[in-house]
Amino acid sequence: MQSQPDSNSGLYNSAFNLTVLVAGLGYFIDTFDFFLYNSMRVVSLTELGLTGYGLTKTGIFILNFQISGALVGSFFWGILGDRIGRKKALLGSILIYSVFMIINGFVRDPVSYEIVRFLIGFGVAGEVGLGATLVAETVRSSKRTYALMFFTVMGVLGVVVAGTSLEFLPWRASCIIGGVIGLLLLTLRSVLFESRMFIDTARKNAQRGSLRQLLGTFPNLRRYVLCVPLLGCNFFVTGVLLTLAPEIAIATGVQGLIKANVALAIYFSAAAFGDWLGAWLSDLLKSRKIVVAIFILGNMLLALLFLQKLSVDASAFYFLCAAFGLFNLWALAGTILVEQFPTELRATASTSNINCSRATVILMNLALLAFKPFGITTALLIIGASVFALALFCIWQLPESYGRSLDEDPQGSAPPAPIPGG
Questions:
Q1: DSSP letter at 308?
Q2: CATH T-level fold of 18-193+209-397
């Protein structure tokens, strides 16, 4: 593993390096947190006295609170990352997450559960976007796809650990352990190198982390909006379909007990191979757009099969969960995202955009509640058709970013605005 970037370029020559490892551990924490809740939703709310539809409804509300916190936090940490540096913002993000994750282990009612999950979402929101930005900016362009693949694989491990931990530990203990791991990660963060691209940009007369530049200029806003549905596909699969796997299994006549934590762990175990497959195909075809379109179609066909009344056994159902993982879009969509924006906006754009994608789960959940009278499978088919169709349109509209140097502004982006009086 390469421990230091090249002294001349400031870039690592290896796709797997110290920054990938340490930033990837932050992504591990991010996914561990979010999918721990997905996995412990039923058992934790049952302990708090909820059952039936009340459990499902309250569980969705708590998830929406968590995602709302992540959405607010993503803009806060993204702007901070562009203004004071990726490394410093990552330290603050993991500190807040860790404290409230430990507190989560002591909640006693749904209201305090909602508040704590909002604050956890706020804290952890910066991990994936800032981490992906730092990884992309500290590795050579020829290694970027694989570096971000290794980064996302660390996140995959977080989900697997979250899913399997509940098979061996009480949910409260899993929360406390997750917070303690976050505090330990703070000590490792001290060895991170700040991105030289950020340092060079900070010396220039340019606005950094400007929402007006990001959302107030049409080229940047267009790219930003088009990127949201790409990861929205993944969140439909993991945040809706697999999170509601127990309810879907009952509705489709699956024979045997289905657990959401097991479904998620199986999915993300396969997703590690899916990330590698996406990176390999994009290098083979010299295109990220084509591979993303293939993966979206793969997810769409699997979702259609997943929601049919096949009356299969639990093993076959879990096999479908694994098949979804082969079309995991995280590495590809995340790479496309960081390649769309200039350095002075990259942390704000990537961090907030990923969490905007995550926030689409709120809309999906609200749509699910609205369409629930038609049956859960019919409601999910309607939502899925909309999600996948929109994602295909967006990837068709986005420019190809394969091989793009991050030192250059993307074509069509607005030039940096000078600092008044600078």
A1: S
A2: Growth Hormone; Chain: A; (1.20.1250)
- In which element (H, E) is residue 334 found? helix 330-338
Residue 253 tokens read as 């006549």
Q: Which amino acid is at 308?
A: Q
| C-alpha distances in Å from residue 92, one per residue of 44, 80, 84, 126, 412 | 28, 10, 11, 9, 33
Distance in angstroms (rounded) separating the CA atoms of residues 226 and 394? 5
- Strand-pairing partners, residue 2, are 17
Q: Read off the pLDDT of residues 330-349 as tens digits, 9 standing for 90 and up.
A: 888 888 988 888 888 888 99
Least confident of 27-31, 55-59, 202-206: 202-206
Band (pLDDT 50/70/90 cuts) for residue 131 is confident
CB atoms within 10 A of CB 98: 24
Question: Can you tell me the distance from the alpha carbon of 374 to that of 397, in angstroms, rounded to the nearest whole number?
Answer: 33
Q: How far apart are CA 298 and CA 323, in angstroms?
A: 9
More confident residue, 421 or 146: 146
Q: Which amino acid type is present at position 227? A: C
pLDDT of 2-40, one tens digit each? Answer: 666 676 667 888 888 888 888 888 888 888 887 788 778
Domain residue ranges of the chain, discontinuous segments joined by +: 18-193+209-397
Report phi then psi at 313, rounded to 5: -85, 175
* Amino acid found at 58: T
- Fill in the amino acid letter for 254: V
- Residue 408 Cα distances to 99, 141, 229, angstroms: 39, 12, 25
Query: What pTM value is reported for the model?
Result: 0.79
Query: What pLDDT was estimated at residue 227?
Result: 93
Sign of CA dihedral 192, 197, 203, 208: negative
Q: Exposed e or buried b for every residue in 104-139, given b needs 16+ CB within 10 A? A: bbebeebeebbbbbbbbbbbbbbbbbbbbbbbbbbb
Which are the contacts of 169, defined by CB distance < 8 A and separation ≥ 6?
177
Q: Is the distance from CB of 260 to CB of 41 less than 8 angstroms?
A: yes
Q: In one letter, which amino acid is 53?
A: Y
Report how far apart the first and last C-alpha atoms of the chain are (Å, whole number).
41
CA distances from 28 to 87, 94, 150, 161, 422 (A): 17, 11, 11, 9, 40
